[in-house]
Design goal:
Strands 1-2 form a two-stranded antiparallel sheet. Helix 3 runs antiparallel to helix 8, helix 7 crosses helix 8 and helix 7 runs parallel beside helix 9. The protein has 2 domains: 125 residues, no CATH class; 85 residues, no CATH class. It has 11 helices and 2 strands. With 225 residues, the chain is mainly alpha-helical.
Length: 225
């Protein structure tokens, strides 16, 4: 799946250039967008915090819609296909159709997030998606580290929290990394280290390990007493 994502991102570079009329950067400053429309409707109240509130409401609504979808029969089938494909096949469901629907749903959400980012930034750049596969992987792993539950509503929530945490860590690294000699060129290194740490933690019960090795042996005199 990771290889498929890398190949798709590589091919989409050419597709994006075609869509953008072979221009690497397209300005959206004079284009009517969702954010400019909201600014025209609420000129006095619109500001940076208004964008945060709007995006928070937007993400919450999207998360609720996904939760509702994944408790339907088709949504449960899609979830079961990822963990137990043979069970889906035994129910007489075509796994290729379900897999294709899942890819369409995921690609649609990726396109929606890219459109929101471009409208907020005021431009569309062909290189904006560079490294997004690795960043997404790091966000997913951070989310799984925060929330262990496999229930649907917790799974969607941990994806969002993982993304917020990852971007927060990157922001801290950009803003305060210079104090330890880091610069913006080290962000990919930090991302790789985060993924490695999350992999180690996911494969090892770190808490149980430290609890076991931090136990002090009982005092012999106290045991005899």
């Amino acid at each position: 799946d990771l290889l498929a994502g890398i190949l798709m991102m590589t091919m989409l570079y050419s597709v994006n250039l075609r869509i953008m009329s072979n221009k690497a950067n397209v300005s959206l400053l004079r284009v009517q967008t969702v954010f400019s429309s909201l600014k025209d409707i609420f000129p006095a109240a619109w500001g940076d915090w208004s964008v945060v509130i709007f995006m928070t409401v937007f993400v919450v609504i999207l998360m609720l819609l996904l939760n509702l979808f994944f408790i339907t029969d088709f949504g449960l089938t899609m979830g079961a296909l990822g963990s137990n494909p043979q069970m889906v096949i035994s129910q007489g469901v075509d796994p290729r159709f379900v897999r294709g629907a899942g890819i369409c749903l995921g690609d649609g959400l990726a396109a929606l997030s890219g459109a929101m980012f471009a409208m907020r930034a005021g431009f569309a750049d062909v290189g904006s998606g560079t490294g997004v596969v690795v960043s997404g992987l790091a966000s997913l792993m951070l989310g799984e580290f925060i929330i262990k539950s496999n229930k649907i509503h917790w799974q969607t929530l941990r994806v969002i929290l993982g993304s917020i945490l990852y971007r927060t860590l990157m922001l801290i690294a950009r803003r305060y990394g210079y104090t330890i000699g880091m610069n913006s060129n080290d962000l990919k290194l930090i991302t790789g280290i985060l993924i490695i740490i999350c992999l180690i933690i996911s494969k090892t019960d770190v808490v149980a390990y430290f609890k076991e090795h931090m136990k002090r042996p009982p005092v012999e005199g106290a045991v005899n007493a």
